[in-house]
Amino acid sequence: MADCPHDVIFAGMCGVCGSTVNPEGRVRPGFLTTQEIQVSGRVLEGLESDSKDRLALILDLDHTLMTCNADTRELRHRPGLHDFLRQTKEFYELYLYTQATGAYAEKAIQSLEDPSIFGEPPRIFHRENTPPGFKDLHQIFPSAAQKRGVLVVDDREDVWPHRVRGHLIKVLPFLPFPQDLRQGVDLEHLITGLSQTDLTPFVKRRRLDDSKAYCRVPSGEACDQQLQYLGAILKRIQKAFRDVDGSITTVVESLRQDTLKGCCICLTGMCQEAKRRLSRCCNMLGATSAELEGSSTSHVVAAGRTEKLWRAKVLQEAGNPLKIVHPGWLLAAYVTWQRPKEENFQLPDGDLPPSFLDLWSQEHFQPAADSDARTAGCH
What we know:
CATH class of the largest domain: Alpha Beta
Structural class: alpha/beta
Number of domains: 3
Oligomer: single chain
Low-confidence stretches: 47-52, 195-219, 366-377
Strand order of the largest sheet: 9-8-5-10-11
CATH superfamily of the largest domain: HAD superfamily/HAD-like
Number of strands: 15
Strand content: 5-15%
Number of helices: 10
CATH topology of the largest domain: Rossmann fold
Helix content: 10-25%
Largest sheet: 5 strands, parallel
Mean pLDDT: 78
């Protein structure tokens, strides 16, 4: 193979002199879904220019933007989808990244009001044009320098490697169909430790024991306001990124930590893995984890009846302003970047909390009009 000095390769051949070229040192531009065209790092920097006004947004498909019924093949859009895409494209270059097939992804795109919103040809990364396993940001943006302006939105964290987590905004899964298997995957199923599945990130389709699955489908998909909150979050990030000289991960970390800044949270009544994951959520939201005995503890998040919960109630009766909530309060904060009203997340008299996948039925969920509602501190 020739050691060609030119920058562009198509199907293993130089686009200038026609020589058969070793592709080493050349990569695919991020806006292309084909591996046939590869360019040098010098050209890549120009093609994927790092704009302070237009960032890149990589969106998941299933259970994030829409959901397909596995039995009937009915495709249902998440409420507010078209408005969300129309508003978001003003500031972000939109990409779609799914572990589904290319045919399914293309069909989903064609169901949109504006199928060209992901570009022409559409910027769709799917099972056939990406490697198996974890989703990989490098597949879209090979240049490390370009990742400073890239955001990822997904309903699952576990399909992305840890190095991408600083770019990731998690959303609540959209579950318009009863007994959707997505109910037993990722963070949501860990909180009470009652899931009947042990799914890996790459095996989704396993039948749940309906008599033991504790998650229930939201009471009405029209209540789902995730895309309204997500749109507000993305606007805040774009404005902050434009106004500061820093990476997108720094901006995301700073804004997200305003959510529960100053809160000191004690977790109880859940498995150790759920505690570990929720402690991480607390830190990402600006809160700290604590034991009940600490005088600075502001919240007890309880997933069941425990001795620690009983002691917390004793402290409350003695005049301590400690707030007791079920895990839905913390999950709501995590997917909206706003501090929810504690009175709407009281632990019920039964042994289990209500479904924390039904957050949108809470009347207090309205997109905030100002930053005061988003960043109210803990007392």
